[in-house]
Specification:
Organism: Leucosporidium creatinivorum
Number of strands: 13
Shape: globular
Strand content: 5-15%
Distance between the termini: 33 Å
Strand order of the largest sheet: 4-5-8-9-10-11-12-13
Protein name: F-box domain-containing protein
Radius of gyration: 28 Å
Structural class: alpha+beta
Length: about 700
């Protein structure tokens, strides 16, 4: 494997300054050599071959050509945007960014067209209008009357690629210098403001700040990881020493903050840092036991402090966005430790990426903390042993009671196979939805969010994972302000399996998303089993027998309600598992038909062409809502699922009601992030404006 040359700050500075020169270096006048007489296309080819000597980081070998003569500088200097554009596309993953920009531009164009059609009035020509020959002239060029687009999502140009190439080389060099020097430079040491952005509306929009140097570096790393299709990761790991750099950031911005009195502050920089650590792959093998304990200490507030750290882009209690300042005025935070802060806020920033200034909301800090925390628990034998214990002092309805004996060995029972937290997959298409969410959900007072059907198909199918719970008395003390309970209180988790169907409904005129029922019941009326059959437009997708992980398929929306109830109950049949068998997955072997076990676990439409045609005919951004139904089971027993998806950011709200109901009803709220489901569950007895009893959950699609 190629080893990059030793780092030289002088060389990097010379390269950076050379690219920024506006006049070529002076050289004595002499007769041009044969190589200087070559066409510029051949000189560019030669330079590209020279740059391949250093495949990661800035192409430092290019400097030797730039200083040869005026001719080489004129051809290969910073004014040649086409050359540096080609270099960028050769060395970095760029097609994923181009694809996402095109997706965002399509959404933007459709919304502009829709707004134009809704606002236009019928126009008739005047009765006395007379058209004469020559009254209309043809434009001299096709683009004469085209208005230049100022949208940040307009197609890329060579200038954009060249600017991004220079900027990335600068960021990678900064990271490498910091990693080799062993410290984050003091000039860039503050990882963005800890205060959530104050709303200063200008034209009904929130004024966003630009990040400081350190946070901009983190934004670049994070977006490069989301765009990675093999090339970006090599630059970050092999040249910029990403893992060393993130260890420095951890000590600088995470550990130091955790050691301060009180709760750590939530910032965009810390959210990006935790996500980069998760996506970039923290090296657990190099950590000492003391360092591993420190990581648990740092992550625990973000995981279990639900009353301090939101797991949602905007308040989960508001069913649709954007909101107005009349309905949700800007107010100070509520007073009292038990009052929930449900004010619409934003941490979005105006960042630089791909040669553009774009508005982006940072990823949710809590999600990265949950992924990292429970992955580390699985790798730490001591933590795994502690996690298996039942929370001490938990009230009766949270205790792990006697488990039922499985009635069959079918796929609805829990086996001894542990449910592991999946490591992130760095394939760009998996993260297209994550990027779209961050780019669309910027300002709760003005952003339109995602199209209504943007997340269609993400939740349908079979999932396995776990839900965690904190000791109830310790949680209550923590809400009251006793932080010591956070670190001393025990916690546990249990495996669970979900089987979900999506159903798309068209909203009636004047009807809004969120349903008519209580928010704590996912918008359904109390006692309702799910969406009414008459309102369902389509079921996305209609499952085959193996759609639900080899189990029996739930009835289609065309069936009667009694048939649906019977089938769901059958799918939920089977017992639990002993308390000691934590992190169980569903056993694929069972009594279901053999062809069901062999079929794909990911739901597919029976008629692919018909499904694609239907999607083309539907307005993805129309007045639709995605409703959810399903069933599942855990060591606590069987349960039914029903819920809906908030189209603004793709957040799902699902009620989990055990049958029989001795275990109560719980509300799950979360997102599909990187192909996994992550979020928090909450009790349904505490009022919305108060902090309830909450825990976390992680779900992975069954393989």
């Amino acid at each position: 494997m190629y080893e990059p040359p030793a780092f030289s700050p002088t060389l990097a500075q010379a390269f950076s300054s050379t690219l920024s020169l506006q006049s070529p270096p002076s050289h004595p006048t002499s007769a041009p050599s044969l190589i200087e007489a070559l066409p510029f296309e051949l000189l560019e080819k030669i330079a590209a071959a020279v740059c391949r000597q250093t495949p990661t980081g800035p192409p430092s070998a290019l400097l030797s050509l730039l200083v040869l003569s005026r001719r080489f500088y004129d051809v290969l200097g910073p004014r040649n945007e086409g050359f540096y554009s080609d270099l960028f596309r050769e060395r970095f993953d760029w097609r994923s960014a181009e694809r996402r920009w095109a997706q965002m531009k399509t959404i933007e164009d459709k919304r502009e067209k829709k707004a134009l059609l809704e606002g236009v009035t019928e126009v008739r020509p005047a009765e006395d209008l007379k058209l004469t020959y020559g009254s209309f002239t043809r434009p001299s060029s096709p683009t004469e009357y085209l208005v230049e687009s100022h949208s940040p999502w307009r197609p890329f140009t060579s200038r954009d690629f060249a600017a991004e190439f220079k900027r990335r080389c600068t960021v990678l060099t900064r990271m490498r210098r910091a990693a080799m020097g062993g410290q984050i430079p003091p000039s860039s040491s503050r990882p963005s403001s800890p205060r959530l952005q104050a709303f200063t509306p200008k034209g009904n929009r929130t004024t966003l700040s630009e990040p400081d140097e350190l946070t901009q570096n983190l934004w670049t790393c994070y977006l490069m990881l989301l765009e990675n299709d093999t090339k970006n990761l090599d630059h970050l790991v092999d040249y910029a020493y990403l893992r060393t750099y993130m260890r420095l950031f951890y000590k600088h911005s995470l550990l130091s903050e955790a050691l301060n009195p009180g709760w750590p502050r939530q910032t965009a920089g810390r959210a990006l840092g935790l996500w980069i650590g998760w996506l970039g792959g923290d090296d657990l093998s190099s950590e000492s036991p003391v360092e591993a304990d420190e990581r648990f200490f740092v992550l625990k507030p973000y995981v279990f402090g639900a009353h301090k750290f939101d797991a949602f882009h905007v308040p989960w209690t508001i069913p649709s966005f954007p909101v107005t300042h009349q309905s949700h005025p800007i107010l100070p935070p509520p007073i009292g430790p038990f009052n929930a802060d449900l004010r619409p806020r934003t941490q979005a920033q105006l960042i630089t990426h791909m040669g553009r200034k774009i508005e982006m909301a940072p990823p949710i800090l809590t999600h990265a903390a949950i992924f990292s925390f429970f992955y580390r628990v699985e790798q730490d034998p001591a933590a795994s042993t502690d996690l298996m214990a039942t929370p001490v002092g938990a009230p009766a309805h949270f205790q792990m009671g006697p488990m039922e004996t499985p009635r069959s060995a079918g796929p609805s029972t829990l086996s001894s196979k542990p449910v592991k937290t999946s490591l992130p997959v760095l394939a760009s298409r998996i993260h297209d939805g994550d990027f779209a969410r961050l780019a669309s959900c910027v300002d709760p007072y003005s952003s339109l969010g995602l199209p209504a059907l943007r997340t269609r198909g993400e939740l349908a199918g079979s999932w396995e994972g776990r839900f965690s719970f904190f000791d109830f008395d310790s949680y209550k003390d923590m809400l009251g302000g006793r932080m010591r309970s956070l670190y001393e209180g025990p916690f546990g988790d249990q495996p669970q399996v979900w089987k979900i169907e999506e159903q798309i409904v068209r909203l009636k005129k004047g009807e809004k998303q969120g349903g008519k029922g209580p928010t704590l019941n996912a918008g359904y009326e109390i006692g309702s089993l799910g969406p009414a059959r008459s309102s369902i437009l389509s079921q996305s997708p209609p499952p085959r027998p193996a759609t639900l992980a080899g189990g029996p398929s739930t009835s289609h929306a065309r069936g009667s309600s009694s048939e649906r109830t019977t089938t769901v109950s059958a799918a939920a049949a089977g017992g639990g598992a002993p308390l000691g068998s934590r992190r169980k997955s569903v056993d694929g072997a069972g009594e279901w038909p053999e062809e069901a076990a062999r079929a794909s676990k990911r739901p597919r439409s029976i008629d692919i062409e018909e499904e694609e045609m239907r999607e083309e005919q539907e307005d993805e951004d129309g007045d639709y809502e995605i409703l959810l139904t399903g069933s599942g089971h855990s060591a606590w027993g069987q349960f039914l699922l029903k819920g809906r998806v908030r189209s603004y950011d793709g957040m799902f709200s699902i009620t989990k009601e055990y049958t029989p109901d001795s275990r109560g009803r719980w509300l799950y709220r979360g997102y599909c992030v990187g192909g996994n489901l992550v979020g928090r569950w909450r009790d349904t007895h505490t009022p919305l404006d108060l902090h309830g009893y909450e825990g976390t959950f992680l779900m992975t699609r069954r393989a």
